[in-house]
Amino acid sequence: MTESTALYDIPGPQTRRRHLLYGVISTVVILALAGWILYLLFDTEQFTTTRWSPFAYEGIQELLLRGLGNTLKAFAYASVLSLALGAVLATGRLSEHRVLRWVSTLLVEFFRAMPVLVMIFFIFVALKVQPLPALVAGLTLYNGSVLAEVFRTGVNSVDRGQREAAYALGMRKTQVMTYVLVPQAVRAMLPTIISQLVVALKDTSLGFLITYEEFLHAGKLIASNLDYDLPFIPVVMVISPIYIGMCILLSWFATWVARMERRSPKTKAVGVAPAEPETLLPGGGPPGAPRPQGQ
């Protein structure tokens, strides 16, 4: 006989066998797809020494490392500026001044709806900005507007009683935001913030369209300037795992920060000693003692 909980019913023997069958079928399909892809790669001679030997050249390695460094540089600038812009726009959207709130809302909605590539091209072509500043500016405007909504939603998600209790203690709005709302909201916002930074990292690859020499641009140069017929697959097989690895590192960093937040002494509950029978109340006497006349 199966047990049940308030949330779901524990699957019975038939359901477990059905789930096991689904798992086996899914595994077989995934393995078959992976085998078919490997067969195509071997059949088209993608693993031959001729196609992979250029990566042993020092010039090719330096080109890839320089492109990777440029990608990380653009991402570093864009991430820091996006967080700063998001904080400013979120503060404007949470402001009690109507004009400031409307202007911030207009900016957020405009840059969030505008395609990143269009902004990058406009800054690069119309404003005649250099490739790196154009790329960073486009990424900052888009990701900063998205992060502004993340910050605003995170602050508003904190229980309303926290805000009211802080105001009841006589704290000003700046103190309430700094010491009460934002520290609690950060824990809820952290996964979404990291996810948006991963998007910014991947969008740095748009820089090759404006001739910025980032990682994807370096791979394109390698694939299009060698003697044999465009070895795009080996280049993709070199570049893709590095992009995936950087995204995984960002996710790991977010998990580490969240773990450190939980271990921080500032976030731990403080133990309170139980009241003893002889504990005095504000009136001056023990619990249950008669009050003096006139009090």
Continuous helix count: 10
Low-confidence stretches: none
Q: Could you say which structural class the secondary elements and strand pairing correspond to?
A: mainly alpha
Radius of gyration: 29 Å
Average pLDDT number: 82
Largest sheet: none
Strand content: under 5%
**Which word captures the global form?**
flat
Cα distance spanning the termini: 65 Å
Seen as an oligomer or otherwise, the chain set is single chain
Give the helices and strands as they follow along the chain: HHHHHHHHHH
- Beta strand count: 0
How would you describe what is shown here?
This protein is an all-alpha fold. 70% of the residues lie in helices and 0% in strands. The chain has 10 helices and no strands. It has helices spanning 13-43, 49-52, 58-93, 98-113, 116-126, 131-156, 160-168, 173-203, 215-224, 232-263. Helix 7 (160-168) packs antiparallel against helix 8. The radius of gyration is 29 Å and the shape is flat. The termini are far apart.
